[in-house]
Write a structure and sequence with these properties.
The chain contains 4 helices and 2 strands. The N terminus is likely disordered. It is mainly alpha-helical. Bound molecules: protoporphyrin IX containing FE (HEM) (2 copies). The site of one protoporphyrin IX containing FE (HEM) has 21 residues, from α1, α3 and α4.
Length: about 180
Amino acid sequence: MSTSSVRVYSPTAKALHWTVVALIVVQFATAFLMPDIGPRTPPSTVIDLHFSFGVVILAVMAIRFVHGLLYPVPLEASAARPWERLLAMTTHRLIYLILLVSPVLGWASASAHRLAVSLFGIVELPAIAAPRAHWALVAGDIHMLAMWALLVLVGLHVAAALYHHFMRNEDTLKRMLPSSL
Ligand code: HEM
Ligand code: HEM
């Protein structure tokens, strides 16, 4: 354990965690409402919202990643078996991996489909792939698959948090809730 490790999540880490949870809910809603993106899909508000919120999630996850490196928190669950700790750690790392890489793949697909990416129409962001670039169209498929994999991982993650709280009576869930609760 590094000397700078603390045993509890800081208010910032908690705020970032729950901000991303809320943003992911909005993001899947926009993904469901969005039309299938094809070569001739016209821009629309729901597509713009999907791109904008997606970029916000990417930015918040990048901040969270750096914050986590600066203030690492070891897994608590003292009664947990080694395989449970390994599963928890792997799940957390995969969630980070998907949320840091997959939005960029979606962005590449947007560019390949000639759809502009901006932050709520206020800040224009550059295209990161050429129109119809093959790699970026494949990236779009990976983006969708990765986001469905994310849902499975989050399902596992939430089930584990609730299991530790209600079945094992451990403080796992409280570690991520505001200290006043
Ligand atoms: C964490 C953030 C994101 C999540 C959870 C997410 C989720 C999803 C999901 C579930 C789909 C599939 C929708 C369907 O099956 O109809 C999708 C498609 C798509 N998303 Fe995202 N997305 C995110 C970020 C982004 C970003 C940042 C962009 C672009 C700037 C983007 C662009 C796209 C595009 C272009 C598609 C269609 C892909 C294709 O057909 O090739 N997404 N997204
Ligand atoms: C989109 C949904 C979610 C994502 C992406 C997510 C992601 C993460 C990640 C990456 C961590 C590792 C610690 C960190 O870096 O902050 C974490 C920790 C945690 N999450 Fe979530 N989470 C989600 C939803 C939830 C929900 C709904 C709950 C509660 C039911 C929850 C409870 C926890 C708890 C208790 C921890 C601390 C685990 C520990 O260190 O002992 N999460 N979450």
